[in-house]
Amino acid sequence: KISKAKYSILVDKSQNILLLKQGDEVVKVYNVSTGKNNSTPVGTFKIISKIVDPVWFHQGVVVPPESPENVLGTRWMGFDLPGYGIHGTVEPDKIGEQVTAGCVRMRNEEVEELYALITVGTEVVVVD
Fold first, then answer.
1. Which end of the chain is more exposed for a tag (fewer CB within 10 A), N or C?
2. Does 110 participate in catalysis according to the annotation?
3. What's the start-to-end Cα distance of the chain, in Å?
């Protein structure tokens, strides 16, 4: 059964939570990590790309999906702000902390669930 619901996402940096919304109704709440030193940008963004098992391009190095050094985990949902997005993690014990370089980080099983629900074009609002 595939939902035709139009979802939106609200990320609350102060609580490190991501709310999946359908209209004004909160469908699900996920614990997430956000950027250290307030590096996660605040504003309204759109998901413009979705990638399964993403390659991580870090400081000129290509880190393949199967590498334990690849911090993106199993999914990537990129914002219309280059370099920022929602992704999985190789450090699930750090979920709930402000530890990322600016992205929103989720547990892999949860980012896979979210990835399956949302489409390219989904609105993401990030607040302090």
1. N
2. no
3. 35
